[in-house]
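hey so i finally got around to running the thing on that chain from the lab meeting. sorry it took forever, my laptop kept dying and i had to restart like 3 times. anyway pasting the input first so we r on the same page abt which one it is
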Amino acid sequence: MDQPQSAIVFCKGKQAGLLAKKAGGYEFSYAAAYLSDPDAVPISLAIPLRPERYESRALFPFFDGLLPEGWLLDLTCAAAKIDKDDKFRLLLQTGQDPVGAVSVRPLEDERHG
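ok and heres what got predicted. didnt touch it at all, straight out
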């Protein structure tokens, strides 16, 4: 996909930041309101709180770790018709109801309700 894609990242139910897929890779930035929250915690030890954005050519290992693996990956990709290599789309499909404190939702979802 040529166009940028974006997702809102939540931590413990609070909007923590924005994850975007761009032509050259990925960007993550914490939301200003989240950074100013005294109870804010980093989404990962590898992504500490800071106002500057993070950039990576590949999906950040933390977000990659949220993806299903093995037979569950195969089942999810087949059911949702997603290529295994499209990790961002897979994250958008599966990241809304994770086991841990961080969830990922497509930006469009927030605009429409």
